[in-house]
Amino acid sequence: MTLATCGAIIWEIKTELPNFYGIMAKNTNNNRIPVKWVRDKAKAAYEKQSTCYICGTSEDLELHHLASITLLLNGWADRKSYDISTDEGILAVRDEFIAEHHKEIYDDVYTFCNHHHVKLHGVYGKAPALNSADKQRRWIEIQKAKCEGGSESKKSPTLSSFSDFY
Ligand SMILES: [Zn+2]
Ligand SMILES: [Zn+2]
Fold it and tell me: How far is the CA of 65 from the centre of ligand 1 (A)?
């Protein structure tokens, strides 16, 4: 069985969960739900790292996309005149979207601790502009150098650090 097949199965189970809608209920952006589905399907195939790329901690790790999947998906659906505002709509085109954005979804990703992930989005916004990938990379390398140089203290590692990844 391939990873992609596993992902598809996991994703289908997740769509049955009603609280997906509850979480997104107060969000006025209709595309939040389809984006989440794309992420959840793709997530199964990620090469997750065990430490934050910037500071090296193994706690509270999260995945960051240099290209905002929300912006990518919305722009792509617009250009193709796809209606992704319904469950059926996103289901019909989800695999096509993932296939055409393999680099952005699977390769242009970083593993960060929650602290550095929040920090990056504090600088570049909740959905960083699609043309900011190079700037983000530079920012990331600067933060990493700061940590390695000791000017920003690393979180001290604890013994119970390998649990709760996703
Ligand atoms: Zn970190
Ligand atoms: Zn992020």
Answer: 15
In a domain, 103, yes or no: yes
- DSSP annotation of 104 reads I
The residue written with tokens 């049955």 in the block is: 16
CA of 88 to the centre of ligand 1 (A): 38
> Residue-wise pLDDT tens for the chain (166 aa)?
333 333 333 333 333 333 344 444 444 445 457 888 787 777 766 667 899 999 999 999 999 999 999 999 999 999 999 999 998 899 999 999 999 999 999 899 999 999 999 999 999 999 999 999 999 999 999 999 999 887 655 555 444 333 333 3
Q: How many domains does the chain have?
A: 1
Buried b (16+ CB within 10 A) or exposed e, 8-30: eeebeeeeeeeeeeeeeeeeeee
Is residue 136, in this structure, part of any structural domain at all?
A: yes
Could you tell me the residue range of the domain that residue 125 belongs to? 31-150
**Residue 162 within a domain:** no
